[in-house]
Specification:
Layout (H helix, E strand, L loop, with lengths): L1 H11 L17 E3 L2 E3 L6 E2 L18 E2 L4 E5 L3 E2 L3 E7 L5 E7 L6 E9 L4 E10 L27 H20 L7 E2 L8 E4 L2 E2 L5 E4 L6 E3 L6 E7 L7 E6 L2 E6 L10 H13 L6 E5 L5 H10 L4 E6 L2 H10 L6 E5 L12 E4 L7 H9 L5 E6 L2 H13 L2 E9 L9 E8 L9
Helix pairs in contact: 2-7, 3-4, 6-7
The chain binds S-adenosylmethionine.
The site of S-adenosylmethionine has 16 residues, from helix 4.
């Protein structure tokens, strides 16, 4: 409550030591600047800065909004990461961005601050005052503030989940690549019971749990609703290979090795990548971040013995399985190396499927230096994808197609596949 605290603080004046003032307000309707707040509790710590050069420093220069403070706010747009944006007025009148989980755009909610970062706040919506029409009862009883941190969008109707993800993709492309994209996130059933790999935390007595959001606290989970009934659990198959079949091709995968988690993902991604690249017999293909050779196997079939496929994978075990999975093709080689090392050519077509951090400039430049005619970029983070698409644009590659799949329903995650094709060299974007 800036008025009360600020007045007291100013009167006390001259303070060189740190002082903490707490204001707790629960009465309805208090005017703070232009904003009317209702029924909230604000706990504000005010720190007095020492005088500098004879000039008094406003006590609010270092005011802090504390963890557990509560505000009633309007929720604005969705933001990347499974939360929405709201703005809170600070004691000095400035507005501070809060990233709010468990909320939806257009809602009025009561939030509780869960994190105070240098330039923004984290918060949970703990009470919905004006619900969005897209709000639903979460299927999972553990999907609530302070509950399991695994799913961000259980409270959102499925079509709206996909619309939120499409909005995030569009925002990332606009912000990081300067591109207007109008993408539809395609539904991929099942939307519950889809996760074929689970990483539970073992608890005493054979029980198991999952972590709270951004916390080490474990929530006991009896039945995770996004886990497939036969989901493999980390630890119980460590190292032992599992056989996976995709469109008639079989793959051996280490029990704890990478494999796409949605049961439809391998087929869907292979079909999408192969349709985008349309590899021709005799072409040379590169499969970068190849895992156990999922895309390599289909590329090898398409380019035939007159062509060649090189799969590059950094994980030793995955690369060994890639060699095993590709051994029926004499014209396919599995290389174990970090893609950044740049030993990757030549290639007419390229599949690029990096981890969440994306490929980054150096890898993009080493690919474009090979002048492939087309690159299919499979991405689980639209921000990393948009950033890298801008690097491709710098080297004369344009995004000619973009598809997005809801391969992680109930969470904020989304999988994109972008096709980059060589065009005339582009002038560099302004810095
Ligand atoms: C998203 S997975 C894709 C795997 C494969 N394309 C698939 O769909 O099954 C990313 C893969 O990149 C590998 N990886 C991560 N960083 C790497 C690097 N710097 N160089 C090479 N491989 C890397 C990981 O081990 C993982 O297998």
């Amino acid at each position: 409550m800036p008025g009360a605290c600020g007045g007291g603080a100013a009167d006390a004046g001259l303070a060189k030591e740190k002082t903490t003032a707490r204001a707790v307000r629960t009465k309805p309707t208090t005017r703070v600047g232009e904003e009317t707040r209702m029924d909230y509790t604000v706990v504000t710590r005010v720190t007095f800065a020492p005088h500098s050069g004879g000039q008094r420093v406003s006590p609010y220069d270092r005011a802090v909004i504390e963890i557990d403070a509560e505000y009633d706010v309007e929720i604005e747009r969705v933001a990347h990461g499974g939360h929405c944006v709201a703005r809170i007025q600070e004691p000095d009148g400035r507005k501070r961005v809060a990233f709010v989980r468990h909320a939806l755009p257009g809602e009025r909610v009561r939030i509780r601050i869960t994190g105070v970062e240098k330039s923004f706040l984290r918060a949970d919506a703990i009470d919905v005052l004006t619900p969005s029409p897209d709000r639903v009862e979460p299927p999972c009883p553990l999907a609530h503030p302070d509950g399991c941190g695994g799913c961000d969008f259980q409270h959102v109707a499925l079509p709206a989940q996909r619309a939120l993800k499409a909005a995030v993709i569009a925002e990332q492309f606009s912000r990081l690549a300067g591109l207007d994209v109008d993408v539809v996130v395609e539904e991929v059933p099942p939307t519950l019971r889809w996760r074929t790999r689970m990483q539970y935390v073992p608890l005493p007595g054979g029980r198991r749990g999952l972590r709270k959001h951004r916390s080490h606290t474990i929530i006991e989970v009896d039945d995770c609703l996004i886990a497939a009934p036969d989901a493999r659990e980390s630890g119980d198959l460590r190292g032992a290979p599992v056989t996976e079949t995709v469109l008639g091709h079989t793959f051996q995968v280490a029990g704890d090795g990478f494999w796409q988690v949605h049961p439809e993902a391998p087929r869907l991604l292979v079909e999408t990548v192969m349709a985008m690249l349309a590899p021709k017999p005799g072409e040379r293909a590169l499969d970068l971040y190849a895992g156990v050779g999922l895309f390599s196997s289909f590329l090898a079939e398409a380019v035939g013995p007159r062509g060649h496929v090189t799969s590059v994978e950094g994980d030793r075990s995955a690369s060994r399985w890639a060699a095993e999975n590709l051994k029926r093709f004499d014209h396919a080689t599995a290389t174990c190396a970090p893609v950044e090392r740049g030993v990757i050519g030549p290639g007419d077509v390229v599949v690029l499927d990096p981890p969440r951090v994306g490929a980054k400039r150096r890898v993009v430049e080493s690919i474009t230096a090979l002048e492939p005619r087309a690159v299919a970029y499979v991405a689980c983070d639209p921000a990393a994808l948009a950033r890298d698409v801008a690097y491709f644009a710098d080297a004369g590659y344009a995004m000619s197609e973009l598809r997005a799949f809801d391969l992680f329903p109930m969470t904020h995650h989304v999988e994109c596949v972008a096709l980059l094709v060589r065009t005339e060299p582009q002038p560099s974007r302004p810095a």
